[in-house]
Amino acid sequence: MSNGYGVLADVLEQWREAFDRRRVDDLVGLFAEDALFQGLSPRLLNGRAEIRTYYENVPPGTTAAVEVLHSRPLAAEALAGFATVTFRTPTPEDPAGTPLPVRLSLIAQHTGAGWLIRQYHVSRLG
Predict the structure, then answer these.
(1) Are 32 and 118 in contact (CB under 8 A)?
(2) In sequence order, which residues have a C-beta less than 8 Å from that of residue 99 and are 6 or more positions away?
């Protein structure tokens, strides 16, 4: 396995780019078929279909800034990591969007399709 920090940074950069451009198909493709997903809603999601619905409901114009904090290998082809993600959703009253910082933890696994996110969990900071 290559440097886990670099792998995690690459996966999260792909995620951020697809998120910022609202490319839901590309976002969903970064997740394993049976991925577990805990976003900002209270409901735990399971699998790509539920993850797709979640991302389809993100307000248009929302962007994310990502800072990778830690990454550790779990096995030869799996890693875990943490990042800080700051979301912003612009509104007419607040064109820059109020920052919403969260802590993201995830597990990624290398498969025949490349690195896929198997578990994704965010919690609000502050």
Answers:
(1) yes
(2) 86, 87, 88
* H or E segment to which residue 98 belongs: none
Mind listing the pLDDT tens digit for each residue in 69-114? 999 999 989 999 999 999 999 999 999 999 999 999 999 999 988 9
> Contact 123/102 with Cβ under 8 angstroms?
yes
| Interatomic CA distance for residues 115 and 79, integer angstroms | 10
Q: HEC profile for 6-63?
A: HHHHHHHHHHHHHHHCCCHHHHHHCEEEEEEEECCCCCCEECHHHHHHHHHCCCCCCE
pLDDT value, residue 5: 65
* 87 neighbors 73 (Cβ within 8 angstroms): no
Q: Could you give the CA distance from residue 76 to residue 95 in angstroms, rounded to a whole number? A: 45
Give the integer Cα–Cα distance in Å for 118 and 124.
21
Residue with tokens 């839901």: 24
- Model pTM above 0.90: yes
